[in-house]
Amino acid sequence: MRWNVLPAAGKKSKPRIPDNTRIYAIGDVHGRADLLQQMFSAIDESLVTHPVENAVQVLLGDYIDRGPDSRKVIDLLIARATRHAMVYLKGNHESYALQFLSDPSALSEWRQVGGMNTLLSYGIRPSAEDDPDEQRKTAAAFRNALPESHVHFLQKLVLSFTCGDFFFVHAGVRPGIPLAQQHEQDLLWIRDDFLLHEEDLGKIIVHGHTPRKEAEVRSNRINIDTGAFATGRLSCLVLQGNDMAVI
C-alpha cells in the first residue's frame, strides 16, 4: 500500500478529527467495481497494520454511470456495510437514477451522462429513441431489475456527513449559507461558485464531482475525485488527528 502525505490545508491551525478516530473518504467510483475492490483491500490492510478504535469509511457519491459495473459497485457497498462503519453520500448520478424511476422522461438527460452504462449493468437494453412509450417501458424494466436492497440503498443515501473540522459532501456547498442550511441542489451539483471561493466555509469541505488528475488541496476544501472511470485512479483521503494522506 502506498501513502502520499498531502500538504496541510491552509496556514491556520491544522483541521482535525476527534481522537481515536480515522476517516477513509473515497471519491467518485462511477461503475469501477474493480477499483473499489482494490481500495477496500488497501483499507483492510491499513486497518490491520495500523489499528484504530473508530474507523469510518465515507463514500462521496456517484457510484453509478459511466463505468461498466454499476450494479456490482452497489452490491459491494451493501456488503461492506455489514462489516464496517460506512457513510454513503448521495451524488447527482444517483439522483438521476431515482428521478428516472418516477419520471421516465428523465432518460433523455440521464443517457447523456452515462446512464446507459448503468442500465446495461442491470441487463436493460433501452431503445435509442426518446419515445415516451419506450421510456416508460425502460423505466419499468429498470425497476423490475433493481433488487429491493438496491432500491433501499439509493433511497437512504445521505447528503452530507460531518466529523470534527471536516464536512463531507458530493459536489460542494453554497458560500455564505450555513452548512446546516445548504440546499440539496447545491450539495449535488454546485461547481464554480464553490470551487472559485477562497474564503472560509465553516469547515474544510471534502468533496468530489469535479474530476482532477490529482487530489486537490485548498485552504477551505479538498477534492478527491480523480476521474476513476476514465483514469483508472480511485482516490481515498485518510484523516486521523490533524494528519492527512491519500492512498
How would you sum up this structure in a few lines?
The chain is of the alpha/beta class and 247 residues long. Helix content is 35%, strand content 18%.
Shape: globular
* Gyration radius, in Å: 18 Å
The portion of residues assigned to helices is 25-40%
What is the CATH class name? Answer: Alpha Beta
- The succession of helices and strands, N to C, reads EEHEHEHHHHHEEHHEEEHEE
Mean pLDDT across the residues is: 95
CATH topology name, in short, is Purple Acid Phosphatase, chain A, domain 2
Descriptive notes:
The protein is α/β, with parallel strands linked by helices. The chain has a single domain, classed as Metallo-dependent phosphatases (Purple Acid Phosphatase, chain A, domain 2). It is built from 10 helices and 11 strands. The chain has a 6-stranded mixed β-sheet with strand order 1-11-10-2-3-4, covered by helices on one side. Strands 5-6-7-9-8 form a 5-stranded mixed β-sheet, with no helix packed on it. A hairpin with a 3-residue loop joins strand 8 (216-217) and strand 9. The longest helix has 17 residues, at 33-49.
List keywords for this structure.
10 helices, single chain, alpha/beta, 247 residues, six-stranded mixed beta sheet, globular, five-stranded mixed beta sheet
